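F.,

This is the one I mentioned.
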């Protein structure tokens, strides 16, 4: 096993740069990242190479998307003093280790990754029958093992990717000696928030509330949200278990309010307009400090870039050590020149 630099377990998490984030991204992953900063030696990566696997066609807005996303990370509470925040392409070791691991990864292992065929179908309108897209899980493996990450917090759908990483690590260590650390998947409960139309909240459905949404916009959008379709009149008893407004109450309102709403809805003691107004207030209370920090970071984009540079420098220290050990084990380290050569 590799040498550990600290006594804390190390984790690596990444997110593709998709621009400004919405409350679904926040509650689905980002909030969890903020919580684990003090528990683990944490590395948070802007996975910009990964975004090319499905979005290589037009990369002009990539810099802005990276900036907007990192501003939202910082606004949500990621702290560069307590974690390493960096951009994948600023640490070239990711690309080099990806190349080396791709040499030992059988094609069959990649073709059987469940998300491969699913994504090909899901994104049928884009041409992603590429070498890069098939190899995406190898890049992910390189990301994880570069930092000798012990733990990888993932949702259920990502477990096969961590399994593949473990297989690649075992194969590498079997061929060249015990150099790489086998990471362990830590299942995190990925909260999936409903969007305004009741479907999963997603930018592609246009049903989101962004982290930077103004107070008025939150109120206005929540007012348009779908509710229990069977509750047509005010006096009809409702079914909170099928109502997306109630699902959001469970995330943003305190437990006592949630219980009261549940009971009042079933007895038709509260109307949907009032229920939504309570939800908008609860969301606004949680978003207020984020909005404030967001404005602060938006006014200093140079500082955000600086954080990414500092993060890349710290990440590279560790990544460089791993890559050196890998190249050493594979007999790829050049011999030093003696005085007479060339
Ligand atoms: S009262 Fe609230 S929980 Fe009940 S149906 Fe209306 S919006 Fe949904």
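My design for it:
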């Amino acid at each position: 096993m590799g040498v550990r630099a600290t006594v804390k377990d190390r984790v690596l998490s990444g997110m593709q740069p998709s621009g400004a984030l919405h409350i679904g991204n926040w509650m689905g992953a980002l909030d969890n990242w903020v919580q684990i900063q003090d528990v683990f030696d944490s590395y948070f990566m802007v996975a910009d190479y990964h975004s090319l696997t499905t979005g290589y066609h037009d990369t002009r807005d990539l810099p802005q998307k990276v900036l907007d996303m990192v501003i939202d990370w910082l606004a949500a509470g990621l702290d560069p003093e307590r974690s390493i925040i960096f951009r994948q392409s600023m640490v070239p070791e990711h690309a080099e280790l990806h190349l080396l691991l791709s040499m030992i990864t059988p094609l069959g292992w990649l073709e059987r990754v469940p998300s491969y065929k699913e994504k090909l179908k899901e994104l049928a309108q884009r041409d992603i029958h590429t070498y890069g897209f098939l190899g995406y899980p190898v890049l992910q493996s390189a990301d994880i093992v570069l930092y000798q990450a012990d733990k990888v917090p993932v949702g259920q759908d990502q477990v096969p990717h961590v399994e593949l990483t473990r297989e690649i690590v075992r194969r590498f260590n079997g061929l060249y000696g015990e150099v790489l650390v086998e990471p362990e998947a830590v299942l995190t409960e990925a909260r999936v928030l409903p969007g305004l139309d009741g479907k999963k909240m997603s930018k592609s459905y246009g049903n989101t509330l962004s982290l930077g949404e103004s107070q008025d916009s939150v109120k206005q959008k929540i007012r348009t949200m779908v509710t229990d379709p069977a509750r047509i009149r005010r006096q009809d008893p409702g079914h909170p278990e099928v109502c997306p407004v109630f699902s959001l109450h469970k995330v943003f309102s305190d437990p006592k309010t949630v219980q009261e709403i549940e009971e009042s809805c079933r007895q038709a003691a509260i109307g949907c307009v009032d229920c939504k107004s309570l939800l908008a207030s609860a969301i606004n209370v949680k978003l207020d400090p984020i909005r404030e920090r967001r404005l602060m970071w938006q006014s200093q984009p140079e500082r955000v870039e600086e954080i990414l540079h500092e993060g890349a420098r710290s990440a590279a220290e560790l990544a460089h050590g791993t890559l050196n050990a890998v190249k050493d084990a594979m007999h790829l380290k050049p011999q030093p020149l003696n005085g007479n050569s060339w």
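Residues 301-329 form the longest helix (29 residues).

Talk soon.
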